[in-house]
Specification:
The complex is a heterotrimer. By secondary structure, chain A is of the alpha+beta class. In chain A, 34% of the residues lie in helices and 17% in strands. In chain A, strand 10 and strand 11 form a beta hairpin. Chain B has a 5-stranded mixed β-sheet, covered by helices on one side. Classes of the chains: A alpha+beta, B alpha+beta, C alpha/beta.
Chain lengths: 555, 257, 298
């Protein structure tokens, strides 16, 4: 399905303005960026986070009173899958040093560091090892490796991009460790885009003052995940990976230390007790909650399980109300809708244009600002393209890239994206793409410190499920760096804690009854069961025919 | 242009007004689904809820390889369910997992030589160049070419040729020599990344600076700054020009490098 | 005329030096052959039976690559590759039914009818360069060297792909063109034992002993050959195998292209002597050929 004749007509307008825009770009002239004051105005008016509608205050738990999106509130105020009184915790099915929940980039990094310390690890994950948002991150990973850059500027860009709402110790840890993480990945055999002399290829991105984005084609996250997973598989004597077996509750011991988790084999519907001296939560984000009905770039299992489980043991959150909308999700063709188009496209110089082929924003604003500007151009200025399936789209002028950097750059720098569009008859080195903001990242989450500790002893967390690092807006390339840096830190911290000697007392799930009593006391009677594990995309017609009231054998 | 009348929300598929439905056969059973949907969304429209066979839903994780035939066509087709658009009378089955032999090795000890790869995967010489692997690849990787390159001793070429691999296992499922191509390629890429591709010297220098504690004071200072102080510095940051080559530009203020 | 070059896996890995000598020689001769940009195994390890057509898919695919390059000829240095490719080519030319089956199987490739000519480098030198032309380019005639040419199996068997009907002529002509004296010997097509060296080293020791003794009795100073596997058994394993036979004598062994490079006056970086073989090194020194800075890594 290539562009329709009507759309091809519109593309001519983009082509008409292109030579002049390319000439300007070659002279280093940019569309003016917004001042901090102007940013505040466009965010307030157009960013979904700033709208009151569809948000409400939490009625229970450590963050009672915090206003979050309705979809988030629903899972935070949920009931457990388990009936704790029917569970015998005295005979664990698994016993290990460190239990890691989630097997994406963060969980796997933690597992590798824990085994480096000589410990035994169980990694339990909902889908397969590596089916995670890490795998999907395309554009790159930040680290101040170049001579004109330093952790100081990485810190500045990150905290400025987050509107100075970030948790400082986390930002400092990230900026400090980022080059170390890159060196670790290089030593593990990750392939980076490099100059012939070995210099890491680095680029600008939205909100950067230095070229700090390292990449591996446009499959940076996939390359990271492949390498980490391969290394974990080489250590199968120390890391056992349980796939399709997510955790559904955290287990404490009688003294309040974290002591393991209840795992659920989704294929056989059996529950297992896993006892561990320390637990690392690395369960990722919440895109599959589809806040405000937005499409998402996230993987199938991104349902915020870790935050939900932690909330029930009294671990609160940081920056939870904030969600990142990626400014450039696919708007056409329909089968790719919501999929991410990496910010690298704009980093390589592609302009964002309206229906008349005109620039209306600086293409490399921080993501929330960029998204708000696109929404504004569609809803207020009314200059978006409307696709045949009724979706808004704005042009992302990818053909500029070859004009700026030489023939073949699109194919070389964006191979996966090129294939993805080529499948549908669109050559993105010749024709622009249609984009619109899409739900991309859970900015906030589990509250941790720079050692990945939560308020519960023995309970650690890392990656997208945590909050604070990015403040209310994350910069490109800080998410991959987040999972590596904090995944490693979580593994190291948990290992240090376990090696220091941990004596577990009697295991308990009493916190579930306590939390559910809070729900009742708050008058919440209609709460759902969570973690929801997987989203349900059944149509209304199919759901209606499922006859929820039909008798089930298991009842 | 007018605003959309009916908009799909989230990932739930809709049948837009006036859109046609087409028959597809999921493991032999007929379902009517809207045209233009991907196999994955079409199956969900039909009422399937995936447990296996769905991962990133973005064409990169390799969880949803699907094999299909079209009515009246002897050929076997391969695609990712999340990327492939349904066609009328498509007979499809997902292959969410395919077993393949994987050799355990120590990346620190192994030598970046073809001999080392051959020793771990002697079955590579069972390749008869039938090319079924390349034909089965949903990412259009030239699998036979990278296997050939490994046999020819050119690991760098194999690493590059296999780079787009998503490890879905379809190559292995079709191999008459019973090779685990994608595991072999993973090994070769790591050898390439670690030993063959030149190392980043500026990175090693930066690592040494960090380990010497050079930035600890700067970062501590930043953490203590007020919002207003930070904002002032943030606004005054010099921006590295877009078109200058890497490693050639330096800011005026070098006090925090 | 456009000529593609098919190296074969062994000449790219274990026997890289042999390819180097040939390519350097061809460059010196001003002959331009281009390595196929895409190629796979010639199929040698699995094409020795013809009752299963899948064995021909590999060599036919290589022939298709050559055809798709627009080449009329495909030259190879390794007699095993030559043999496999040539036999597959004959099959594609002569057997309509099998040709169709193979073409149908490889739907992703263009159809192939045997359009490309497969040649081993020695006949190629004779037919394309010509012995006289070659002789005219010789800078260091190998005068006084007594060279026995070992054909092994795959240059002359089966008959329909043999580079000549009876072994003994063309390689002698080649040797003569280089200025050396060809030595006939009876074991020139006795099988070297091939891959049996792994499973049955004793049997291979026996045939290697017979080949070396036969050449030696005929008065040869050195042996040349054109297959890296023969080279492995007759050169790299010679000492070990002959010891099994309690034979003390050592015979220098060269790939034909190494001799060619020497005669063309190229340096040791081109003819690349095997420094691990004392007999060959000794021989070269005795004939005033340098062995410096040219070591083949053992």
């Amino acid at each position: 399905m290539s562009y329709t004749p009507q759309m091809q007509e519109l593309i001519k307008k983009v082509e008409a303005t292109r030579p002049e825009r390319v000439a300007r770009a070659k002279r280093g002239e940019n569309f003016p960026a917004l001042s901090l004051e102007e940013r505040a105005v466009v965010l307030g008016k157009f960013h979904p986070d700033y709208q009151e509608e569809g948000r409400r205050a939490l009625r229970v738990g450590p963050d009672k009173g915090l206003v979050v999106p309705e979809e988030v509130a629903k899972v935070m105020e949920s009931r457990s899958m388990l009936r704790p009184e029917k569970i015998d915790l005295s005979k664990p099915d698994y016993d290990t040093d460190i239990l890691i929940l989630g097997a994406g980039g963060g969980g796997t990094s933690a597992a590798l560091m824990a085994t480096d310390a000589g410990l035994k690890v169980i990694m339990a994950t909902k889908l397969r090892h590596g089916d995670a948002n890490t795998m999907m991150a395309e554009g790159g990973i930040q680290a101040a490796t170049q001579e004109c850059d330093s952790p100081y500027y990485h810190y500045m860009d990150t905290i400025g991009g987050g509107h100075f709402t970030n948790q400082p110790d986390l930002v400092a840890a990230l900026a400090h460790d980022a080059p170390l993480s890159i060196a670790w990945l290089e030593a593990l055999g990750m392939i980076f885009n490099k100059k012939p002399d070995g210099r890491l290829d680095s680029r600008h991105f939205g909100g950067s003052c230095r070229k700090r984005m390292q990449s591996s084609g446009d499959m940076t996250g996939a390359e990271i995940m492949r390498v980490l997973r391969d290394e974990a598989r080489n250590r199968r004597d120390r890391i056992s990976t349980l796939e399709f077996t997510p955790a559904v509750e955290i287990i404490l011991d009688e003294s309040g230390k974290c002591a393991g988790a209840v795992l659920y084999n989704m294929e056989t519907r059996e529950f297992f007790i896993a006892r561990a001296k320390a637990v690392v939560i690395a369960t990722g984000g919440n895109g599959r909650l589809h806040i405000k009905g937005f499409a998402t770039t996230n993987h199938y299992g991104a349902t915020m399980d870790g935050v939900v489980m932690c909330y029930r043991v009294g671990v609160g959150t940081t920056c939870l109300p904030s969600t990142q909308y990626h400014p450039t999700g696919v708007a056409y063709p329909e089968q790719n809708v919501g999929l991410l188009i990496t910010e690298k496209v704009r980093g390589l110089g592609a302009h964002v244009l309206n229906i008349d082929g005109e620039q209306f924003c600086f293409p490399l604003e921080p993501r929330d600002v960029e998204s708000a500007e696109l929404i504004k151009e569609a809803l207020e200025v009314n200059k978006a393209v409307v696709t045949p399936t009724g979706r808004y789209g704005l042009w992302l002028d990818s053909p500029m890239i070859d004009l700026l950097h030489g023939e073949g750059t699109v194919r070389k720098e964006l191979p996966a994206k090129f294939i993805q569009f080529e499948r549908h008859g669109i050559d993105i080195s010749k024709d622009p793409m249609l984009v619109y903001p899409t739900l991309h990242y859970q900015n906030g989450g589990i509250a941790i410190n720079a050692d990945c500790e939560t308020v519960v002893p023995g309970l650690y967390s890392a990656g997208e499920c945590t909050g604070g690092l990015h403040g209310e807006n994350r910069l490109m390339g800080n998410s991959l760096q987040d999972v590596i840096t904090f995944g490693r830190r979580a593994g190291i911290s948990a290992a240090k804690y376990v090696t220091g000697g941990v004596e577990l007392g009697k295991l308990t799930l009493d916190h579930i009854a306590k939390f559910e009593k809070e729900l009742v006391d708050a008058g919440i009677t209609d709460s759902i069961i969570a973690p929801i594990l997987l989203p349900d995309y059944s149509t209304d017609e199919v759901s209606a025919r499922r006859l929820a009231e039909a008798r089930q054998e298991s009842e | 242009m007018s605003a959309p009348k009916q908009v799909a929300t989230g990932d739930r598929a809709i049948l837009p007004e006036g859109a046609k439905t087409i028959p597809i056969y999921v493991m032999g059973k007929r379902y009517e689904v809207p045209e233009t949907l991907t196999i994955m969304k079409a199956m969900e429209f039909a009422g399937f809820k995936f447990l296996r066979g769905a991962g990133c839903r973005g064409g990169i994780c390799g969880a949803c390889p699907t094999v299909y035939r079209k009515e009246g066509d002897y050929k076997l087709y391969f695609g990712l369910a999340c990327q492939t658009v349904v066609e009328p009378n498509m007979y499809l089955a997902q292959i969410p997992f395919y077993p393949a032999n994987r050799a355990v090795y120590d990346i620190e000890q192994i030598e970046p030589l073809a001999d080392a790869v051959h020793a771990l995967y002697p079955e590579i010489f069972r390749c008869v160049a039938c090319n079924n692997c390349s034909k089965a690849c949903p990412m259009k990787v030239e699998v036979l070419d990278y296997i050939s390159a490994i046999k020819q001793g050119d690991l760098a070429r194999a690493a590059k040729l296999s780079f787009d691999c998503i490890q879905c296992g379809m190559c292995a499922s079709r191999c008459m020599g019973e090779l685990p191509q994608y595991h072999i390629a993973q090994l070769v890429r790591r050898l390439y990344g670690k030993y063959i591709q030149p190392g980043a010297e500026h990175l090693q220098k930066r690592v040494a600076q960090i380990e010497s504690g050079k930035y600890d004071g700067m970062l501590a200072e930043l953490q203590k700054m007020s919002h207003a102080e930070l904002e002032k510095i943030y606004k005054e940051r010099e921006r590295e020009p877009d078109m200058v080559p890497l490693g050639t530009w330096m800011p005026k203020d070098v006090s925090h490098l | 005329m456009k000529v593609s070059y098919y190296p074969g896996c062994t000449l790219k890995t274990k026997a890289k030096h042999l390819e180097d000598s040939a390519l350097a020689s061809l460059a010196a001769l001003g002959v331009e052959i281009r390595e196929l940009p895409r190629w796979n195994c010639c199929g040698a390890v699995h094409s020795l039976a013809d009752d299963d057509l899948i064995h021909h898919v590999a060599p036919v695919r290589d022939l298709i690559r050559a055809k798709d390059e627009g080449s009329e000829r495909l030259v190879t240095l390794c007699s095993m590759c030559y043999n496999t490719l040539a036999r597959a080519n004959l099959l594609m030319r002569n057997d309509e039914v099998k040709r169709k089956t193979i073409n149908d199987f490889m739907t992703e490739e263009s159809d192939y009818q045997g359009e490309v000519e497969v040649e081993h480098l020695i006949p190629f030198l004779r037919d394309v360069i010509g012995w006289d032309n070659l002789r005219a380019k010789i800078k260091v005639p190998l005068t006084g060297m007594k060279i026995a040419s070992y054909y092994g199996c795959t240059l002359v068997r089966p008959q329909n792909v043999a580079i000549e009907p009876v072994a003994g002529k063309i390689m002698n002509e080649f040797v003569e063109a280089l200025g050396a004296e060809p030595i006939d010997f009876s074991a020139n097509t006795l099988c070297c034992g091939s891959y049996q060296v792994l499973a049955h080293p004793d049997s291979v020791a026996d045939v290697v002993g017979r080949i070396i003794e036969s050449a030696s009795r005929a008065g040869a100073d050195a042996l040349i050959l054109s297959c890296p596997l023969c080279e492995y058994n007759l050169l790299k394993k010679q000492e070990e195998l002959l010891e099994k036979q309690k034979i003390g004598r050592r015979m220098p062994v060269f790939y034909f292209s190494q001799l060619l490079a020497m005669a063309l006056g190229l340096g040791p970086e081109s003819y690349r002597p095997d420094m691990s073989d004392a007999a060959s090194v000794e021989f070269l020194k005795s004939k005033n050929f340098s062995v410096e800075s040219a070591a083949v890594q053992a």
